[in-house]
Design a protein that fits this description.
By secondary structure, this protein is an alpha+beta fold. It has one domain: Alpha-Beta Plaits (2-Layer Sandwich), CATH 3.30.70.100. Strands 1, 2, 3, 4, 5 and 6 form a six-stranded mixed sheet that branches.
Length: 139
Amino acid sequence: MHQFCYASQSTSEKAVLLEDLANILAEARDFNYRHGLTGVLYFADGYFFQCLEGTLEHLELLYEKLCKDPRHDNIKRFALRPVDEIYFAGWSMKYISRRDVIRDFCISMGFNSFTPHAFEQQHVDALLEQLRSQDEEAA
C-alpha cells in the first residue's frame, strides 16, 4: 500500500462552495470505495488538504483525475510513499471541516493560518496525526 497527500485551492465561488464540497465528497467516496482507497479530506480557509491510501495504480489514476478537476487549483503533491499502516482504514473518505484545534496546531508549527502549500513533509506527517484523532463531519 502507498500513501500521498496533496494541497490545493478551491476555485468555487462562495455561493456554490457547499454544493461543490458535497459533490467532491460524494465522488471521492464512490471512487475510493470502488477502488479500495481510503483517506481524509480537510477543508478550511479556501484550501483542501487530502491524504489518500491504496495501491499505486489507483492512487496515480486518482491523481490524474484530480488534476483535471476544475474545482481544484494550485495543486501541491507531497511525497508518494509506501506505508505499513493504513491511517484511515474504514474510511473511503473521512471529512473534517475547519476546526480551531487544527488552526491552533498550524500556528504551533509556525504558520499564521492553515496554509498547506507552505508545508514540508514533516508538517504533513504531524497534521495527519491530528486528523486521525478528529471526528468526521457530514458535508
